[in-house]
Amino acid sequence: MFKLTHLFVGMVILLVLVSCDESTSTLGVDMMPAPDLVTKNYKIYDVTTESYAVGDSVLARTTKSYLGRFTDPETNTTVMSDFMAQFHSDEGFSIPSTVRNDSCTRFDLRLFIDDFVGDSLQRFKISVYELDKTLDPNADYYTDIDPTDYYDPNSEPIATKWFTLSDRTIEDADRWSSSYTNNIRISLPNSLGTRIIRDYKEHPEHFANTSTWQKSGNPCSKGLYFKLEYGDGAMAYIDLVQLNIFFRYYDDYINRDTISMASFAATDAVVQASHFKNYNLEKLLADKSATYLKSPAGIFTLATLPADQIDVNDTINSAKLTLTRYNDVVDSPFKLNIPQTVLMVRLDDYLNGFFENYQINDGKESYLATFNSSTNTYQFSNIARLVTRMAKEKKNGTATENWNKVLIIPVESTKDSSGNIVKLNHDFSMNCARLVGGESDKVKLEVIYSNFK
Fold it and tell me: Domain count of the chain?
């Protein structure tokens, strides 16, 4: 009797457990009033895009300088660049007091090339001019800067140079050795270097820091303009410009004469201002079958988001925008690269100083996307907060003229040691991408809503 009773109780408990297990999956739904059930909707909207001309004027906040002229074989557009550079005087700068005859034995410039686009054997000619006006390190300069505001075009250059980006004056074994850094060497008059040495002997305080150096009146102290005179077919990315003074002096340590060098370098502590000029962009801007991204400066893509079609009474779970790149149609070893990172930013924010104010992508009104070579696309995976904000501005009457417009801009980022983005600048690499859009095809915005019945 005792065992049968326990068996009966156990069967009852088992039935209760099975019954509970079968019903728990709908427990929340059973308890929720019918009008509050969550539903989801998936909708696709058309996005209007067009090419947006910025011409030659973007903020020139970069640590590189650009020199050359290059015609893109794909689009037949041309970019020309030359530049101005100032030189930094290190604290503790010194020249030995035992310089022979207080004279310079060699005075030169080195333009170190980090990378280039085009044919390294194309010939170029540059002229080097002294600036007669100092560039303000606290000012913003743009790529359409006019060098004639800072040097006298009627003056004589202090040097001229014919060169190729691949230095053919040295042996191949030296050119490809690990110790060689590709550079353009420009000889300057020794008399200018001698003036600097003699001024240091009389006024070492002129060399105490960059500010005193720029006010010293010495040759090259206000900076130099590297003017492109001739050439087409390549563009050099120059990451260091160095001004070198060589001299012979008596070294007490080794008890004999020796050759030494003092240097001034163009660093991020002083201004380096590249001057860009784009040609033949009109054809790309007139192409309504696509839109373009073209750097440096050049062309961005402007998108008008259909935020006025968004229902702000529903919650947007996600909003995805994908930009697809057309493949190149011209096969050339010198074709331009593809922009690797692009920024989506509201047009008004860009016009009101996004880059000038050192802003970065915030995931609310500005977003980054990287080029996916497998799918040939840039994908902004979730811009729901931006679209929602636009829709609410339209509904509550605070929308501006450009309320639903965003720019797609090629950029480069600077990251800290933890991989966090700390700075965004315009991408000044030679890049171009033709994107699906314009009047022929509409870009699609994919939106997933959720609401409560």
Answer: 2
